[in-house]
Write a structure and sequence with these properties.
The structure is a single chain. This protein is of the alpha/beta class and 265 residues long. It has a single domain, classed as 3-Layer(aba) Sandwich (Rossmann fold), CATH 3.40.50.1820. An eight-stranded mixed beta sheet has the order 2-3-6-4-7-8-9-10, with helices on both faces. Strands 1-5 form a two-stranded parallel sheet. It is globular and about 55 Å long. The chain starts with a helix and ends with a helix.
Amino acid sequence: MLGVLLCLSAVALPVFLRWFEYSCLYFPDRNVTRSPDSLGLQWDSRSVIAEDGTHIRAWHLKARGQKPPLVIYLHGNGGNIGDYLDEASVLVHMGLDVLMVEYRGYGESGGSPSEKGFYMDARAAYDFAVGELGASRVVAFGRSLGTAVAADLAVNRPVAALILESPFTSGVEIGKEKFPWLPVRLIMTQKYDTFSKISRLKCPLLVLHSPDDEIVPFRMGRRLFETAAVPKAFVELRGGHNDGWSASGGAFSEGVSSFLKANLK
């Protein structure tokens, strides 16, 4: 009997740990209740196919002007792209095209969430932007969890610039912050190790972070910024993790605009 219990425990424990990890990391919402129409934006709904065949939904928000830079917008770990429209619209009003990527397992995209899958989704969006939309200057923009996805994209595709809003050094470090009593490094399979990639950047970097961020420690954004050996800028926001971009008034848009003007040729 003891042997049977040990065997069952050996099977059940890894399953529980994977469930626990994913339930702490991903908060997808399949119900998209907002569209860019609510903000009067010009847009198209696009379907992008990732390398593994997963169909990914994307929204192409169009700015006025001839061939503006295109921002690939990679959102956080909760909700869906409809929840991030307000911030994306700020970028559009700055004169930037925006391709909002809906991760697998979120909104109308197929598949299930995973680190490897998110990286494939972002790369597929980049290839679509260059190949189908004819974008010649692509900026990777990541928010929260999306910063790790944007950083991975920037070291695997020739983006013109990388913008990280409220970035973290790695999923393991965040896990250790939240669960210091657990052997997080041994348990976690979803690494999201931005720190190991930041020194490999070949494009200009902008980091936006608030000292009042209650989810991602401000020091992580500073560490990533200080480690990067490329043209870079840091904008200190105000407010919490989810409202820093809006609570900071013009600091967000002015910081992004100044950075792109200085670094996009």
